[in-house]
Amino acid sequence: MNGPTRARIGVKTLRTDRWWLTPLATFVVFTAFVVYATWRAFAGHHYYAEPYLSPFYSPCLTDSCVSGSSDFGQPLSLWSLSPALVILIFPLGFRMTCYYYRKAYYRAFWLSPPACAVAEPHGAYSGETRFPLILQNIHRYFWYAAVVVALILSYDAILAFGPAEGESDGIHMGLGTVLMVANVVLIWLYTLSCHSCRHITGGRLRHFSRHPVRYRMWTFVSKLNTNHARYAWYSLFSVALVDLYIYLLATNVFDDPRFF
User: Fold this and answer.
1) Could you report the per-residue pLDDT of 226-248, keeping only the tens digit for each?
2) How many degrees, rounded to 5, is the angle at CA 57 between CA 52 and CA 63?
3) pLDDT tens, 24-55?
4) Distance of CA 123 to CAs 1, 5, 6, 114, 126, Å?
5) If 0-12 CB within 10 Å is exposed, 13-18 middle and 19+ buried, where does residue 104 land?
6) How far does the chain reach from its first CA to its final CA, in angstroms?
7) 124-128, 150-154, 227-231: lowest mean pLDDT where?
8) In 14, 34, 161, 219, which residue has its Cα 20 to 30 A from 42's Cα atom?
């Protein structure tokens, strides 16, 4: 009863496997994405190649948006910086406060702890009870914003079936269309598999039998939740890939392959 709360082990860890590979890979990938996303967000150009709009710039709401990219008007006419900086705060806030991402970057960047059964270098731990980490609790509210963003990206994916400039009316599909559809599917899987979504659908119910619809929704989200980390990675890659593809089209590196 009065013994120490932790085993007194003089070494950092007794693990003999390559436990450091996962936090190292997370550090490299996250850093690469942050650098790329920061460059693209502040660039303010080459984000639209009709009919494709980069997810970093959707919806484009300022009067600096290029012609054809503002499907919801330009209400923010006084905004003088890149249009992406208006939008990215919402998907970025959702991902930065995500339960899985918190675990990933706490380990990779802060070494808190770097891995299971590995001692961390910090002398004290206050959890998420103080500023700024207490702000992580607004994740549930960012989820609602993420749903709106996913709906807008779904609309963009539908528009991607439209004809590009100089083509006749009708339904067209190119490689960009496929990438945008795949991206929005992964975005929805990541959003709906969120822990907050699971709690919203059935977290406060005491009797599932009295709420059969919500129980089915909770069961569906719970199944998705088992792969939440995988969807987090896949959707991170897909949103960067779609933006890069549209950038290459807008800079005339190659033409969009059309299937019909």
Assistant:
1) 999 999 999 999 999 999 999 99
2) 100
3) 999 999 999 999 999 999 999 999 999 999 99
4) 24, 16, 14, 14, 10
5) buried
6) 73
7) 124-128
8) 161
Domain ranges of the chain: 21-250
pTM metric for this prediction: 0.90
For residue 172, give the amino acid letter: H
Q: Are the CB atoms for 76 and 61 separated by under 8 Å?
A: yes
